[in-house]
Specification:
It is built from 10 helices and 14 strands. By secondary structure, it is α/β, with parallel strands linked by helices. The strands form 2 sheets. Strands 3, 4, 5, 6, 7, 8, 9, 10, 11, 12, 13 and 14 form a 12-stranded mixed sheet that branches. A two-stranded parallel sheet has the order 1-2. Strand 3, helix 2 and strand 4 form a beta-alpha-beta unit. It is globular. The N terminus is likely disordered.
Length: 447
């Protein structure tokens, strides 16, 4: 019976993608790549073929420059006098955006000692439901307060972020930065902490691999499972890894992604064809990634150190199921140029996932299925076009090239420029990005 159900689910998946592409032939299988002159036959938003028959298979999106950016390349001058937000200042902030009444996650986090929580409301958020949720460390960032915050501090990026959108979380990031943040924990309203602390002192080892991607879930479970946004063409790749002791104690690990128990972050293909719940091994160490190796991380249980605040920005011209994944890939390239890395650590939260329609999730995740592998290839090959570019120019140029290669739309280029201006206004300086550094000799330890 289970085989029949799985077969039916796979038929639904393929049918959904065919319908998504306008009822014409498409496939995520190993069809031939298109040349740039054939770009018009592909949908730039999804990466799906617009039709046509190619032998016994479909056609795949291939990375190339598909269009030219004609907007302004001028960045705003760096602020001479940084602005500061009014209100309580904390070094450690949690940022959540929500359209729901108070959840157990919010109540639990509000009680964690030493952390402040900013709840970013949207127009759909039931403000009246929060009258009983009060704490000295809690900020209820209402719609009115967000508008006042934007106007008082003159924040350009906030004007660009639509309401009723996942990207409202960006306003919360700016609020935390404006109120003294040295570390920001990015999470959702359905990810409940497993303990009454958000650890920064986790044990880590270096993961070494020659592959472009590593299925990091394999380090925490024997189940066949992969993170949302992981290139589908790499799922069955046998990857050899080596583990090495860290010599810097984790000082160059600027982003910490914690896994989630029970209902981990997986894509709609996995949810429709496999079983949940799933729990990971909690006794494993954390694994920091080598430069040029990419693994998608999410916006559900992720710590960003101050050095990586430039990489908090969530794109707004792609779907929310794509936004945090594209952010992670974009940021990893910049971390590599800064000589820093990302680490994946044992579960910190249990996700009791809000209700989702898996086929609707599938629809929104199509760009991940069609483009993630090509995006990784693009980022591996990308270098700043001039050796004298400062970090702001490098970040902006990569945003431009992401647009020119059809990974997001022009609105996100404009947003990145405004975000960089706002960071400068708040007194934040980007770290140097001198290029990918050689890895130190490996003192091998068990994985």
């Amino acid at each position: 019976m289970r085989q029949v159900v799985l077969y039916g689910a796979r038929v639904v998946l393929v049918t959904s993608i065919i319908l998504y592409s306008g009822g014409l032939v498409a496939s995520w299988g190993y069809g031939h790549f298109l040349t740039p002159t054939q770009a018009a036959s592909f949908d730039t938003f999804t990466g799906l073929s617009r039709g046509g028959v190619s032998g016994s298979s479909g056609r795949r999106f291939q990375d190339h420059q598909c269009r030219e950016y004609r907007g302004s390349g001028k960045l705003h001058a760096k602020a001479e006098t940084p602005v500061r937000g009014k209100g309580k200042r904390c070094e450690k902030w949690v940022v959540i955006t929500t359209i729901n009444p108070p959840t157990e996650t919010m109540k639990a986090i509000a009680k964690i000692e030493g952390w402040c929580l900013v709840l970013v409301f949207d127009r759909k958020t039931p403000e009246a439901a929060y009258t009983g949720l009060a704490s000295d460390s809690l900020v209820l960032f209402t719609v009115r307060q967000q508008i006042e915050f934007m106007e008082e501090l003159g924040l350009k990026s906030v004007e660009l972020i639509p309401w009723n959108h996942f990207g409202r979380k960006n306003v919360g990031f700016l609020y935390a930065i404006a109120h003294g943040a040295a570390v920001i924990y990015d999470t959702d309203d359905d990810n409940i902490p497993l303990r009454a602390e958000l650890g920064l002192g986790s044990t880590m080892v270096d993961l070494r691999s020659q592959e472009r991607t590593v299925n990091i879930y394999n380090m925490f479970t024997e189940h066949k499972v992969w993170p949302r946004g992981f290139p589908l063409e790499d799922i069955h790749r046998n990857t050899e890894v080596t583990c090495c002791s860290r010599k810097d104690g984790g000082d160059r690990v600027w982003v910490h992604q914690f896994l989630a128990q029970h209902d981990p972050d997986v894509d709609a293909i996995y949810r429709l064809t496999s079983s949940l719940p799933l729990d990971f091994n909690t006794s494993r160490p954390g694994f920091s990634l080598p430069p040029t190796t990419y693994v998608p991380y999410n916006a559900q249980a992720t710590l960003h150190r101050r050095e990586a605040f430039f990489g908090l920005l969530l794109p707004i011209t792609v779907h929310g199921r794509v936004s945090d994944i594209w952010r992670s890939y974009f940021t990893q390239k910049l971390l590599h140029l800064a000589g820093a890395s990302v680490a994946f650590l044992p579960p910190l939260v249990r996700q009791d996932r809000n209700s989702h329609d898996y086929l609707a999730d599938l629809d929104s995740e199509v760009p991940l299925y069609m483009k993630a592998g090509q995006l990784v290839a693009f980022l591996q090959a990308w270098t700043p076009p001039r050796p004298d570019m400062d970090p702001q120019e490098i970040v902006f140029q990569l945003a431009v090239d992401m647009y020119q290669h059809c990974y997001w739309e022009e609105g996100d280029v404009t947003l990145v420029g405004a975000w960089l201006s706002d960071l400068s206004s708040l007194g934040y300086s980007l770290p140097p990005m001198a290029g990918v550094q050689d890895q130190p000799p490996c003192n091998q330890v068990p994985c």
